[in-house]
């Protein structure tokens, strides 16, 4: 068992907490050992809110390392993990295996810890998505809910669930305050989206991605599918992955790619959140001159055919307005640092276009289009939004090389440059996979279809422009599966995760 640091008495006085506050989070030593002994040990209490903390020490400049030190001074060091040293899948597999061994031996504390466990992850959206993916892949009977500490550039996941979007304080008082929020937070489910991408395989050589393709870490299945797999297509590469917040393509992904490329080449220039965000804004200003940096030949309607499935088994062709340079498939009400591209349709628009309120656990993605940054400025207005294109359970993009030989794509802040081979199509299909549990504060902006406190009424006074409608089509529904979807390779520098 860990002993309380001497500073606990002073901190308890400052925060009007008694010393029992810290017992809520501490996990006994014997449960955290690499090989837990299958015997029950006597401990004086059962933690009310046991936590495992995962910190990307390379996020947020020097803040990640400072936050790691503070958490280790407050909690049992064995329950606070540096993602630069140990991956979350190894930690969680070991931890839950220990719990199962102890439960079989009649350890009531192990039973309660499994029921009450909460996870904390500190890093950017890429780091948070990594942990969410691991939890999803473990397929636990009950997935522990997750709180996210914003240490990245966009921080859309933390912002969507009320944890803020600015780097938090890393001192003792700030961390204790955050732990208090974790203790009081409510649980909320969030949809998990599976993405499948298929393209022509090289005629010779390995089945690595076509150069210069560098996919995000969540699209890691860099091999041909096995024989008998329903997605097995002769001569093609199949990539699988997943996301929780958004998939986007076009000009916005191009800006993000330029930022990530600059950070990769000059990491010494990206040491804190303020510098990162100002650099991103500077690069993003090129979107105001979209005709120069993103010619019309790269507009979505010129390179992609889009189909959606709103109702089971019914595919529809989705017309894309000619001027749309960017499409966002959105699950959370936070994009590009906290904007909500979908907004709030009024009752008439909802009825006329068959829209439903945008919940994070309803199995629907909101599909929004943008022409350029001038169009994006409407998001600064209280009721501003992009061009609402559709809501869908499944989305399919088929890219053909036209005048452009590439496009840009992005998953939860992780961008890549996607080549479009001559005379060959690239297919991207998105489908609902499942759900994981998140922790949300009282200021959470996300809405749940299962939460009785969630407002179900749409604002009838909101005014908006309605630019596009959809048409219908059909094709039989097929399920997708994703194995080990979110594994991050050992050689990856996690400082590059947003």
From TrEMBL:
EC top class, as a word: transferase
Subunit details: Monomer.
Pfam families referenced in this protein's UniProt entry, alphabetically: DAGK_acc, DAGK_cat
EC code: 2.7.1.107
Chemical reaction(s) catalysed: a 1,2-diacyl-sn-glycerol + ATP = a 1,2-diacyl-sn-glycero-3-phosphate + ADP + H(+)
Cellular component aspect of the GO annotation: membrane
Region (Disordered): 447-482
Protein species of origin: Cucurbita maxima
Keyword annotations of the record: ATP-binding, Kinase, Nucleotide-binding, Plant defense, Stress response, Transferase
InterPro entries: ATP-NAD_kinase_N, DGK, Diacylglycerol_kin_accessory, Diacylglycerol_kinase_cat_dom, NAD/diacylglycerol_kinase_sf
Role, per record: Phosphorylates the second messenger diacylglycerol (DAG) to generate phosphatidic acid (PA), another important signaling molecule. PA is required for plant development and responses to abiotic stress and pathogen attack. May be involved in the accumulation of PA during cold stress.
Protein name per its UniProtKB record: Diacylglycerol kinase
Family per record: Belongs to the eukaryotic diacylglycerol kinase family.
Gene Ontology MF term list: ATP binding; ATP-dependent diacylglycerol kinase activity
Domain DAGKc span(s) in chain numbering: 46-199
């Amino acid at each position: 068992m860990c002993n309380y640091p001497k500073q606990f008495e002073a901190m308890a006085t400052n925060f009007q907490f008694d010393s029992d506050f810290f017992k809520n989070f501490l996990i006994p030593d014997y449960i955290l050992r690499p090989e837990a002994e299958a015997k029950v040990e006597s401990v004086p209490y059962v933690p009310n809110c046991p936590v495992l903390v995962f910190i990307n020490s390379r996020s947020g400049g020097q803040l990640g390392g400072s936050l790691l030190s503070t958490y280790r001074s407050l909690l049992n060091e064995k329950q606070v993990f540096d993602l630069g040293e140990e991956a979350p899948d190894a930690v969680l597999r070991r931890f839950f295996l220990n719990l199962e061994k102890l439960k079989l031996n009649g350890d009531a504390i192990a039973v309660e810890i499994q029921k009450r466990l909460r996870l904390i992850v500190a890093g950017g959206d890429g780091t948070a998505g990594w942990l969410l993916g691991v939890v999803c892949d473990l397929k636990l009977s009950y997935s522990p809910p997750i709180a996210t500490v914003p240490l990245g550039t966009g921080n859309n996941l933390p912002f969507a669930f009320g944890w803020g979007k600015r780097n938090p304080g890393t001192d003792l008082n700030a961390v204790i305050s955050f732990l208090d929020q974790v203790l009081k937070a409510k649980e909320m489910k969030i949809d998990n989206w599976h993405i499948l991408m298929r393209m022509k395989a090289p005629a010779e050589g390995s089945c690595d991605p076509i150069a210069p393709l560098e996919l995000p870490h969540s699209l890691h299945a860099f091999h041909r599918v096995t024989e008998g797999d329903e997605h097995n297509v002769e001569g093609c590469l199949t990539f699988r992955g997943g996301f929780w917040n958004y998939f986007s393509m076009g000009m916005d992904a191009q800006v993000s790619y330029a930022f990530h490329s600059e950070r990769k080449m000059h990491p010494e220039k990206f040491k804190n959140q303020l510098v990162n965000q100002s650099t991103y804004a500077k690069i993003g200003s090129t979107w105001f001159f979209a005709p120069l940096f993103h010619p019309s030949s790269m507009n979505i309607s010129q390179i992609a055919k889009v189909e959606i499935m709103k109702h089971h088994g019914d595919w529809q062709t989705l017309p894309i307005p000619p001027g749309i340079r960017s499409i966002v498939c959105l699950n959370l009400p936070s994009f590009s640092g906290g904007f909500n591209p979908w907004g709030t349709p009024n009752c008439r628009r909802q009825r006329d276009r068959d829209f439903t309120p945008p919940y994070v656990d309803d199995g629907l993605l909101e599909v929004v289009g943008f022409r350029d940054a001038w169009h994006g400025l409407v998001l600064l207005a209280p009721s501003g939004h992009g061009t609402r294109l559709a809501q869908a359970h499944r989305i399919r993009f088929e890219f053909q090389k036209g005048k452009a030989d590439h496009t840009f794509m992005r998953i939860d802040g992780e961008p890549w440059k996607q080549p479009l081979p001559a005379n060959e199509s690239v297919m991207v299909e998105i489908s609902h996979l499942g759900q994981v549990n998140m922790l949300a504060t009282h200021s959470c902006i996300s809405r749940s279809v299962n939460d009785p406190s969630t407002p179900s009424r749409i604002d009838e006074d909101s005014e908006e422009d309605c630019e596009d409608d959809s048409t219908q089509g059909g094709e039989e529904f097929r399920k997708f599966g994703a194995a080990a979807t979110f594994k991050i390779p050992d050689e990856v520098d996690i400082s590059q995760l947003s």
